[in-house]
Structures are given as C-alpha cells and as structure tokens.
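Form 12-C: Joint structure prediction
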Amino acid sequence: GESVGLHLPTLSVQEGDNSIINCAYSNSASDYFIWYKQESGKGPQFIIDIRSNMDKRQGQRVTVLLNKTVKHLSLQIAATQPGDSAVYFCAESLHGSSNTGKLIFGQGTTLQVKP
Amino acid sequence: ETGVTQTPRHLVMGMTNKKSLKCEQHLGHNAMYWYKQSAKKPLELMFVYNFKEQTENNSVPSRFSPECPNSSHLFLHLHTLQPEDSALYLCASSQERLGSGANVLTFGAGSRLTVL
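Section 2 - Result
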C-alpha cells in the first residue's frame, strides 16, 4: 500500500551547516509533494511544494528535490539556523485526488540545530 | 497568525462531558478540514468540507461530530470521548479550484485535548 516515510526520526546539525531531510514514498502515481514545518506549540506551516513534472524547486534557503525513479523526496536547508529547529513533514497527493485533504503525511523528522 | 484560528488551545474533559472545538479562517478559502495529530503517528485526516458540504468522513467514530455552518467556520463537537482520543486536533483550510489538483493547506495552531 501507499506509505510516506522519513528516513530518520531525528537529525542533529550544527548551526550554519546544511541540512538534508529525506522522505520516501511508495506510490509512483503520486503527482504532488509538499513539505511542512511544525514548531513546538504551533500547527504545521507550509515550506515548499513540488509537482511531479519537476525534479527540483528552490525557495528561500530551501530546496526540494524529487527523484521519481527511486520515489525519493528531500528537503535541503542551507545555512541552518536555530529557528529551523522543528519537526518536518513530507506529504504526497495521489494522482486523481480532487481534494487537498487526500494528502498522505509522513511521521516527521525532528531537526535539532546545535549552536 | 496563519489566518486560521482555533479555540480553545487547551481542553481537558471527562469521558462523560460534551465540549466543542472551534475553527475560524480569515483567508476566504472554500474548504476546511479537521486532522488528528497523535504522538509518533502521522497526521490523520478526519473530515473535509467543501463549500460547507461534507465531502470526506475518514471512518471517524460518531463521538466526533463536525459542523460547518459557513465557509469560514468549522466546529468539532465532542461527546463521550475515550482517553485514547487525547491528541492535538488541527484545523486547516484551502482554496480548492476544480481541476487544479492539490493545493496548499493552511493550518491553525491546534487544540490540545486531554480526556481523563
């Protein structure tokens, strides 16, 4: 069945280093992927999304890479800052879904930034 | 600050109580959602409303009863809950356009529910 999973539950990085958070998905028919960040005491906040007709998309300090061959998604954060400490979720949307609520979320990776 | 406001932020209730969670969105979106977030589990979709009409009920027990009086307000009525229902309940909204596929969800900060 479909599943969206993150490779590591916790990632610890030094402030200023680059962070890479990975996500695997199993449904090759998924056509939309999204990353959310959830800080303590807050709801998930949109970071960046990508559609399956792209393999890379860049935002401010963040880059999402999509490898459809191996069904892998990654979020790269440049020059990681203490404010980046949070839980990061990837989610996929199944092809043909007419409603955003069909997003399937992964369990999340906790990013800890060491000063 | 996200444009989706949830109240109360924290709620403690007994198993025989009746309470409600409220969500209001100021974004002009036409779809609203309830998600359940439990520790060490992925976000679970509970209910979806498009243009005030319920379009998704993800096999949620009847002790959870949603209400959507208009496109800006969403309620989750709670009665005779169980301790395992303790979780963070997240409301979200989105602007759905026919044929455009998935769109970004904007979440509220959540209501932390504890059932004793």
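Section 3 - Comments
Chain A has a mean pLDDT of 88. The two ends of chain A are 41 Å apart (CA to CA).
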